[in-house]
Amino acid sequence: MLPELGQIALLIAFVLSLLLGVLPLWGAQRGNTTLQLTARPLAFALLAAVTVSYILLTVAFVQHDFSVAYVAKNSNTLLPMMYQISAVWGAHEGSLLLWVLTLCIWIAAVAVFSKNLPDVVRARVLSIMGLVALGFLAFTVITSNPFERMLPAPVEGHDLNPLLQDPGLIFHPPLLYIGYVGFSVAFSFAIAALIDGEIDPRWIRWARPWTNVAWAFLTLGIALGSFWAYYELGWGGWWFWDPVENASFMPWLVGAALLHSQATTEKRGSFSSWTLLLAIAAFSLSLLGAFLVRSGVLTSVHAFASDPDRGMFILAFLCCVVGGSLVLFALRAPKEAGKPFHWQSRESLLLLNNLLLTAAAAMVLLGTLYPLLADALGLGKVSVGPPYFGKLFLILMAPMVLLIPFGPLSRWQRENLSDVARWLAPWLALAALIAIIAYFRAPQHPLKSAMAWFSGIWIALGTARFVWHRFAQAQGRFTAEMIGMVTAHAGVAVFCFGALMTEGLSVEKDVAAKPGQSFEVGDYRFTFLGVNEVAGPNFIAQRGDIQVGVGERHLGILHPEKRQYASGGSSMTEADMHGGFTRDLYVALGEPTDNAGGWALRLHVKPFVRWIWFGSILMALGSLIVIFDKRFKRKGNEV
Distance between CA atoms of 49 and 8, rounded to whole angstroms? Predict the structure, then answer.
């Protein structure tokens, strides 16, 4: 009976989203205040209905109700409780319901924190978000019903994919979805502004905090997914340019451009068309990511579905959203260029920043979709891999790394960049000198090592120069926006240093080890002690014991595992690592090599790899700090 109630709640949510998408928008167009005021209660009712549906699906998992087909396919009685709860979003139907729930939370949050917006603006924004929810609820109800029954019910369920039986499943998808779906707020404000026909800095001030929160959570979600893949898949990499990784990276790049463009439009009135288009593009790329993951056109460890009907439905929805938005943009976007600015100004630097970020997103989009188009057009199988993405991304990002310190030190409208260059010249020379030293001292890949030191030191010192300049000019007064910008740019410095050092100086060795045998990898020693069998809650594991040390110092014992799951017979490799501030020691257990206790091992030394995720956290933190800027709390502009 509970699954039927969950399905009824979904149908009620579908009706409520239709009402939310139609009534307030109609009221805004007709000047009917009564209809406009229905937006907030409808938003809360929609969240309540979807929450009930989600809770009832969770109850089905916890109660092992295998009469629900989705539960039977993705759970069993041996599954630990934390994975029973997170298994709700472990496959297509439940992850889509989580997506809808996240969208409804965003809608309700806008309803709560927009009480002081003009009624007509709030009505339009919530109605547009309601129409987006309508599309996803239709997708759920028509093609992806999570409450579909399986009768007679099996005695035991299958299992959750072993790749997903990890704490990463608990945090990664929700964080990613908050970011993905959060761009719907900026999108809705942009569409509302186009419908209204008044494109001014006020709507940017209303939309900016929501965009910052969405981008911050998307950053955290991508970073956590990277760390999850790093320790779970056993290959020791942090980014593989997997097509579905790219699907989350594209809206991140466009979102970063949107953050900078919104700041320019709000403060100077420039880039308004850019900002509108980027808001549309960021959410459209989020929808494209949903299509790629759920349509079955991609083969990936991330992919959820392979049903062409689902793919066609979300492709049609994507075309409606993107096509309709672009038509509206073509008809209503402002024709004026905004306030004029000199080519030597902060506006010019931010424009170049946006061009580089959007070009990078276009490059990733082309590399991701071209193999699909080539296959569909009968041009043969084409593989686009890391060499393409890595080289082109490096070419596009190198100018941005050089320009990052210039932006904060430059003035709006007009600046003599030679003055800024003079302030930064000593730090540029210092970064270049250290990079040259690193080049000649690097044991391998000297160019990457030099780039790591140059980019990290240059951005960090350039950002510090801005802090000193601001302290001298404003007696130490810093706004939340400035503190957030400094924090985010420091995160970029840390990330660039960690990523390039890891790529350039990592050492990997595959060995066939016997008990008692030691191996030197870089400056570190790995001693294989043997393998023991251990029992987990729903698996049997062969657990290795590998002692790690440096010189005469013992650092610890690592325990990589090879797990055999009780249900379905799936096996998984679980790597183990000894983390540190400057390096990770990483071990993955392979297959037995003989009957005398020999095993294949993969040994890694990964310099500064954790700086990648620390830098990402700083970027996200900086984006969140900005929302506390005082001007976002002005009366009449509360968001």
Answer: 9
Query: Please, is 441 exposed, middle or buried when counting C-beta atoms within 10 Å of its C-beta (0-12, 13-18, 19+)?
Result: exposed
Residue 633 per-residue DSSP state: G
Res. 242: pLDDT tops 60: yes
pLDDT of residue 639: 40
Return the residue matching tokens 């003599």: 416
Q: How many CA atoms lie within 13 A of 44 on its CB side?
A: 7
Diameter of the chain measured on Cα atoms: 83
Residue in the structure block whose two tokens are 């990402």: 616
Handedness of CA 358, 360, 363, 365 (dihedral sign): negative
Q: Give pTM, 2 decimals.
A: 0.93
- Residues 238/246, Cβ–Cβ less than 8 Å: no
Q: Given a cut of 80, is residue 294 above it in pLDDT?
A: no
Give tens-digit pLDDT for 335-365. Answer: 765 666 666 778 888 889 999 999 999 999 9
DSSP string, 396-441: HHHHHHHHTTHHHHSPSS---HHHHHHHHHHHHHHHHHHHHHHHHH
Residue 557 contacts residue 543 (beta carbons within 8 Å):
no
Helix H or strand E encompassing 333: none
C-alpha to C-alpha distance for 525 and 211, rounded to whole angstroms: 47
- Indicate the burial class of 636 (C-beta count within 10 angstroms; 0-12, 13-18, 19 or more): exposed
Rounded Cα distance between 632 and 628, Å, is 7
Residue 533, H or E segment: strand 524-535
Q: What letter does residue 631 receive in the DSSP assignment?
A: G
Residue owning tokens 């439905």: 313
